[in-house]
Amino acid sequence: MAETLLIGGAMLSDSTARDRNIARARLKFLESAEPPATIVPEGIRNSWQRSKYLGIGTDEVVVPYQPDYDRQSRLVRAAAPVLDRLEQVLAGSDACVIVTDRKGWVRDRRVGEKRLSAHLDRVHLAPGFSYAEQFVGTNGIGVALEERRSYVVLGTEHFNERLQKVACAAAPIRNSVTGRVEGAMNLTCWNGPERTLMAALVQEAAGDIERVMYEFSSSHQRALLEAFQQVTHYGDRPVLCLGQDLVLANSAASARLTGDDHRLLHEAAAELGHAPRTRKQVQLTGGETALMRCRRIDSSAGAAGYLLELAFEDPSSDRAPGGAARSRSRDGQEAAKPWPLPGLAGTDPAWNTVSRTASRCARDRTPLLLHGETGTGKSALARAAHALTGAASVPVVVDALDPRHAPGPGPGTETGLVSVLHAAPTGPDRTLVLRNANAVPAAEGPAVARALEAAAARGTWIVGTLDRAPGVPDALRSCFAEAAAVPALRHRLADLPALVDCLLRRIGAGVECSPDVLPPLRRHDWPDNIRQLESVLRKAAAGRRTYRIELGDLPPALHSAGSRSLSAWESAERDTLVQALLETDGNKLLAAQRLGISRTTIYRKMRAYGITLPVRR
User: What is the largest CA-CA distance in the chain?
Assistant: First the structure.
């Protein structure tokens, strides 16, 4: 029996007194800038501060609704038998069991009594709605997913007043194989003295769902392995089996596919729906096209994944009937294949196209205009294409923005730029690169054009480069027979791992890069493109603390996804915050203590600066 307290002449249970004290602490916290009182449990204090910082309402429940979702997902199917059993046990009681996905979206709900069901409908705790902390504030589901552990939220501990009539306990549901949180199990009931058993019940239910999911995984894996072995037993064509947590590939497929190709093929297979067998063409990351024959594999636990049989274009197919059409198709596919250039890296289709164009123009001595954002590697591309011809010379690069190339002192005097162009070595094994051709003044265009044409007449390969500024003067346009666009780094992020490896080899000293470094590199916009990436890697390599570049070696700006320009003071504040988080292994409380600020301020500053550093809460 619950103990009682005598307060103001009235007998109150200890739970009622506690609720009132928590309610007073909550109101005081909402009305002041001070952190919650220590009477409030630490996890609830932290959640209140996050909720207040996010501007969560306290008197209305406003949550997003997503009516279209996969009602046959592995999580929902694994939870169904557990919820069925609990529904029978809880029939007629004032309790409800709920399952959400990893982002807090409610996927199933079973309620014991109509009055509680009506209340939960009014506060939108129903399938299709999200009960993530960022929308509702402090609640069992939201806190359990934020803290990645079981949690109970009682009555007045809820941030929103409309939820304070109930108590809820939630526990994360984890994938037993990967350890990843797949969702949450929640038990909600009217707030009362019997709430103490909630945590144990919800943890037991979450464990039951995890065991069913593991059985599903084992069944899926057995079905995929059996289908894979049956197909690969005969022949050596490329075969791939794709499940949620399993990828099987024979050597013929492994030799031609990458991890990004696996993702593309899985997405293409999923788009085909539930058709038992069908074909589809898929363009891979290297530009190559594969004809995919797809068959869905089912297990006793439902859909396990897909069996893919791949076919690539046969080089001898142009000799078959209709060979002309197939030859054109093959030529198109060949044009999309990777085209390696010395000292450069990348297999992005747009990069392949410009690499092939530059190589062909270098071989045929066709004047080429390369355009693209600053730092994309236009001059480097010209040098690599020149080297591919086997020439022993080094390209001559002349920059129209070089102040030494300013016009002469008087009318009729040859400009410094024209003089340099005339003095450049020419010949069949020579390349002349005019950088920033758009910076050539219109009045000097004719003289510059004559200098370039004279060099081209001697067999020199002429290359012009320009950024996104207005194009070259009219007089220069006739100097370039072809033009090609060099893609920005943010448009070819699939090439990032290869580019990082290439740049690190250029830096030398056997520098390696930790896999943790790639995610923040992918999130960055790279306004100065590859030039900026190389600069970042050089600085990180110079300041690294181990044999390889780690996450903490990156500059603070790489951990921020903010879109606006920062003042010098703001940049310094952001850098100090990132450094403190890195030094405390992402512990916000320790970082706040080190900086002499509150944990709430840490959250607010991280949001303001778009800090994306993966940190612990």
Answer: 108
Quick one: pLDDT at residue 273?
55
Contact between 310 and 268 under an 8 Å Cβ cutoff? The reply is no
Distance CA 303, CA 583 (A): 45
- Find where tokens 């949180």 sit: 181
The 10s digit of each residue's pLDDT in 126-165 is 999 999 998 999 999 999 998 889 999 999 999 999 999 9
User: What integer is the mean pLDDT of 456-473?
Assistant: 83
DSSP state of 101: E
Strands 461-466, 289-299: pairing kind = unpaired
Residue closest to 377 by CA, chosen among 435, 452, 421:
435
CA distances in angstroms from 273 to 74, 268, 276, listed in the order given: 16, 10, 9
Please answer whether residues 345 and 498 qualify as being in contact, where contact means their C-beta atoms are separated by less than 8 angstroms.
yes
Residue 409 clears pLDDT 60, i.e. is over it: no
Q: Measured in whole angstroms, how far is the alpha carbon of residue 175 from the centre of its chain? A: 21
* pLDDT tens digits, 54-77: 888 888 888 888 888 888 788 998
> pLDDT tens across 264-288, in order?
888 788 776 555 556 778 877 666 7
Give the C-alpha separation, 120 to 96, whole Å.
9
134 neighbors 150 (Cβ within 8 angstroms)? no
> CA-to-CA distance for 580 and 8, rounded, in angstroms?
49
Distance CA 286, CA 84 (A): 48
Exposed e or buried b per residue across 172-205, where buried means at least 16 C-beta atoms within 10 angstroms of its C-beta: bbbbeeeeebbbbbbbbbbbeeebeebbebbbeb
- Tell me how far apart the terminal alpha carbons of the chain are, to the nearest angstrom: 37
pLDDT tens for each residue of 519-565:
888 877 788 899 989 988 888 888 777 778 888 788 877 776 654 55
Supply 461's token pair: 């390969």
- 8 Å CB contact between 304 and 298: yes
Collapsing DSSP to helix, strand or coil, 451 comes out as: helix
d(CA 297, CA 276): 8
Please give the Cα distance from 115 to 326 (Å, whole number): 69
Question: Residues with Cβ < 8 Å from 499, sequence gap 6 or more?
Answer: 345, 346, 489, 530, 533
User: Percentage of residues in the chain with pLDDT exceeding 70?
Assistant: 84
How confident is the prediction for the chain on average, in pLDDT? 81
Kindly tell me the number of DSSP H helices and DSSP E strands found in the chain. Answer: 21, 19
Q: What CA–CA distances, in Å, run from 25 to 227, 229, 261?
A: 61, 63, 54
The alpha carbons of the chain give a radius of gyration, in whole angstroms, of 32
- Identify residue 578 by its one-letter amino acid code: V
Q: Which of 126, 123, 133 is nearest to 106 (CA)?
A: 126
- pLDDT of res. 565: 57
> Is the pLDDT higher at 44 or at 252?
44
Residue 109 · residue 97 · CB < 8 Å? yes
Evaluate whether 436 touches 465 at the Cβ level (below 8 Å).
yes
Tell me the residue ranges of DSSP E strands in 455-523.
461-466, 482-485, 512-513
- Gap between the Cα atoms of 257 and 265, Å rounded: 10
As a whole number of angstroms, the distance between CA 368 and CA 480 comes to 5
Task: Give the integer Cα–Cα distance in Å for 348 and 496.
Answer: 10
